[in-house]
Amino acid sequence: MRTKSFASKLLLSLLALTASSASADELLSPIKPATATSQKEKICAIYPHLKDSYWLSVNYGMISEAEKLQVELRVLEAGGYPNIGKQASQLVLCTQWGADAIILGTVSPDAYHDNLTDWVGSTPVFATVNELTLSKEQQKVLKGTVGVDWYKMGFQVGEYLAKLHPKGSGETPIALLLGPQASGGTKPVALGFYDAIKDSDVKIDVSYWADNDKELQRNLVQQVIEQAHVKYIVGSAVAVEAAISELRAADKTDEIGLISSYLSHGTYRGLLRNKVLFAPTDKMVEQGRLSVKQAVSYLRDQPYEMHSAPKIEALTPATLKDQIIADSLSPSEFRPVFSVNP
């Protein structure tokens, strides 16, 4: 049972959010309180967004695992990485719903560094995909994490290019379009990429940063094609998907190579058709499954690994394997699912 002081904190927090970043409509969730007779474990999952197939694939993994393990699951998404206030309000909604555990894909590593318990109280939290950094005091509610080291993802991308263009082979200019500059996994990806290319002839000609929104990334790709003279576009899957069609329209498909910092349905099709040269995968479907397994194991007092991470796989048109793709991408017909109540 939640304490009176915690309830007061939630009320004050909700009032502050209503005044600043979340409307009253946003705070009134369609989620209905569970009945007193419900015996199933109740898990609430929160994503930064469902704008691209990356988080769609995480969603598929979670939904399929929740169905398999016979637990109740509710899914919320914040609508984008800038929406810290909205995501914080969703943490509150999860506690109001009575979640036994919360799986959090944070919009920013430091978003809840000093105040996670203000939003969730004592509800156990499991970080998924994105790094969640917490103060020592706040770590008491963090019971598990799932996710790869995004530095290694970026390093693999840079290493692929560096091997193609080693020192002395001739300067090779590229455009870097990795997504939002300070959110999600973009920063560690960029650091890994920079380190991998530092002793090569790969040179970053332009770097543009924006949320992983299709139109925002399309605009950046058009800007690169019109203004820059580059041999490659290295970008998020959203940017690379946009670049496939934009390069075709500009008749520059054979002039500019495309390299993605992670896998998506669109970049997978690009690999199949030799339109994309390289993409690492951190197996998004598997990550979704692992997160639900962690939470359920905790709630059922079963042993589990506090940190789980799939093996990062490097994909080229010549190295596509069915099982790796199945662990990475949701089926083509899958659409977002926001609740499981077996």
TrEMBL record:
Residues 41-296 form the Periplasmic binding protein/LacI sugar binding domain. Residues 1-24 form the signal peptide. InterPro entries: Peripla_BP/Lac1_sug-bd_dom (IPR001761), Peripla_BP_I (IPR028082), TMAO_TorT (IPR014301). It comes from the Bacteria. Keywords: Signal. CDD domains: PBP1_TorT-like. Its main location: other. One of its GO terms (cellular component) is cell envelope. It is found in: Cell envelope. The keyword Hydrolase does not apply. It holds the Pfam family Peripla_BP_1. PANTHER family: D-ALLOSE-BINDING PERIPLASMIC PROTEIN-RELATED (PTHR46847:SF1). Belongs to the bacterial solute-binding protein 2 family. This is TMAO reductase system periplasmic protein TorT. It comes from Vibrio chagasii.
